[in-house]
């Protein structure tokens, strides 16, 4: 599904109204009706509903919602925040209708009305927030800020219209403060700001409604941003065919684990199998290879020595032979931050001619020498968390956190690689500028080894024939849905990486409706 920024949504509206000829007032009516149909059940127990309206079209939606609810015998009060004499266009039409119907309308224009505003808001049990929508364009101050704070303190259920007032629809930043909604009803398509943190914290349950905008208005918008949803996932999952054998589903080479972190090799190899890989070979330091043979008996284990500071000629030969065997490679989890890791990475990148996933210590090696990336034969997916990204591009973590999409896109374009920037809202960016935002997962997944599992899932999908971008997007989806299933079972606190692995098969099975 496409995700849009404010200017893209405005262009969709403009085209629909000006070129197709559906009047704006019709869209506003559809928008209001869709909000009422999504929320009327919530009003059953409610005695007092308050609609806080700004003076733009978001406020216009609010006036129309007020009228529809009032016609359905719901007790409604409308409070206009701002100068009502400035209301114009479609919003003015709905404002005038509300006045004609004698709906209870108040104004919060200056400090003199603040007590009245507080009393009305504190007395209600449901608040519709129609102060600002996609037109919010600067820091919120004065009475608007005051109003948002009062709304958030009220003991009421809060429903945001299109977007919580205060969230920047383009990047999820909070412009001063924002209404903290229990539910957000957004129109036509999700806005980027609803999905990224911190904005996502203010959204509550998100519902996207159809307001009668034709597909053609949406299709002509060249949005670069998408989300993977449950319906779409099944079309990405690689097929299994009856006439097949283990070689049909990918020969996956996992280069991971050292004596300090042998478990990383176990997690990555096992995840690759659980995602459907036919054959997984694990290349690991000799002294800890028995950990893999014991914990993943299905894996074929090849060993090398880390006794010296350089990789031996014999081990290099062994590695080159495996590069000829493999369909795809994952390199980095628990591999150690030393010269041998850098050497192995360099050998892989400069000799292998298919697609690889570089994670963890593989990324740390790249941070020290990004030139390795420019001298390559293979396609590369890298999967940094925010700290690894900070080391890789030498930006402050805070700067990366506030600009996840921009930073990932830049890296993808500069090095022509697929970037999976991992966080609570993982961003997947492709060299062609396309971006996918992952909306699933939970804080239980912030646990050691969780990233190793993701690497195993992505490399497995590569082995089964997906291209880099699809493997990264579907891999992140499967990982986070498996994390969500694990959370349903165990909660967030005790969730460990192994629980994510156990749930991979069930996510794939339920996506395929098997
Ligand atoms: N178009 C359509 O077909 C449809 C659109 N729909 C609805 O329209 C919404 C978009 O409406 P919109 O463009 O009128 O913007 P909106 O969010 O109401 O805000 C603009 C007002 O806020 C003001 N303002 C901004 N920032 C401010 C600040 N920090 N502090 C104070 N003031 C600030 C700004 O003032 P100005 O910048 O002019 O001074 C202006 O007065 C959209 O989200 C959806 O709900 C639906 O009905 C479906 C059909
Ligand atoms: N709060 C969260 N919500 C959703 N997903 C999360 C959250 N915290 C971490 N994750 C996910 O868990 C994984 C953690 O990976 P990483 O930091 O590399 O772990 P490790 O290095 O221990 O394997 C990433 O896929 C990340 O997106
Ligand atoms: K709003």
Automatic annotation (TrEMBL):
Name listed for the protein in its UniProt record: NAD(P)H-hydrate dehydratase
Protein species of origin? Vallitalea maricola
């Amino acid at each position: 599904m496409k995700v849009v920024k404010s200017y893209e949504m405005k262009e969709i509206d403009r085209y629909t109204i000006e070129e197709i000829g559906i009047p704006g007032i019709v869209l506003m009516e559809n928008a209001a009706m869709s909000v009422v149909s999504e929320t009327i059940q919530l009003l059953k127990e409610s005695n007092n509903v308050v609609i806080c309206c700004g003076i733009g079209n978001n406020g216009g939606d609010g006036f129309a919602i007020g009228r529809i609810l009032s016609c359905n015998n719901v007790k409604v009060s409308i409070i206009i925040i701002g100068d009502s004499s400035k209301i114009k266009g479609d919003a003015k039409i709905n404002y005038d209708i509300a006045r004609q119907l004698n709906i209870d309308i108040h104004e919060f224009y200056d400090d003199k009305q603040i007590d009245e505003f507080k009393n009305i808001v504190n007395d209600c049990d449901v608040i519709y927030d129609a102060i600002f929508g996609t037109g919010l364009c600067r820091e919120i101050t004065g009475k608007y800020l005051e109003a948002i704070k009062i709304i958030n303190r009220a003991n009421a259920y809060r429903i945001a219209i299109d977007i919580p007032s205060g969230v920047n629809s383009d990047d999820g930043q909070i412009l001063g403060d924002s209404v903290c909604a229990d539910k957000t009803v957004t129109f036509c398509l999700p806005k980027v700001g609803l999905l990224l943190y911190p904005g996502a914290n203010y959204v509550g349950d998100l519902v996207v409604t159809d307001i009668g905008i034709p597909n053609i208005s949406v299709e002509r918008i060249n949005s670069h941003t998408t989300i993977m949803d449950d319906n779409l996932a099944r079309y990405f999952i690689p097929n299994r065919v009856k006439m097949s054998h283990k070689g049909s589903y990918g020969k996956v080479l996992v280069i991971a684990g050292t004596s300090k972190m042998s478990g990383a090799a176990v997690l990555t190899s096992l995840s690759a199998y659980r995602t459907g890989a036919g054959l997984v070979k694990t290349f690991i330091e000799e002294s800890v290879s028995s950990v893999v043979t014991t914990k993943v008996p299905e894996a074929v284990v090849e060993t090398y020595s880390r006794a010296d500071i350089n990789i031996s000629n014999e081990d290099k030969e062994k590695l080159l032979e495996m590069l000829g065997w493999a369909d795809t490679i994952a390199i980095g989890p628990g591999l150690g931050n030393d010269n041998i890791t850098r050497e192995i990475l360099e050998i892989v990148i400069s000799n292998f001619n298919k697609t690889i996933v570089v994670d963890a210590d593989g990324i740390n090696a790249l941070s020290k020498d990004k030139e390795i990336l420019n001298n390559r034969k293979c396609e590369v997916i890298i999967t940094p968390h925010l700290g690894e990204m900070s080391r890789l591009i030498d930006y402050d973590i805070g700067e990366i956190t506030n600009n996840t999409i921009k930073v990932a896109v830049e890296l993808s374009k500069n090095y022509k690689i697929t970037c999976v920037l991992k966080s609570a809202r993982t961003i997947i960016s492709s060299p062609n500028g396309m971006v996918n935002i992952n909306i699933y997962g939970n804080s239980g997944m912030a646990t050691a080894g969780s990233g190793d599992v993701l690497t195993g899932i992505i490399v497995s999908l590569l082995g089964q024939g997906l291209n880099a971008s699809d493997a990264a997007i579907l891999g992140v989806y499967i990982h986070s849905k498996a994390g969500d299933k694990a959370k349903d079972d165990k909660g967030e606190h005790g969730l460990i990486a192994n629980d994510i692995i156990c749930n991979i098969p069930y996510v794939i099975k339920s996506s395929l409706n098997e």
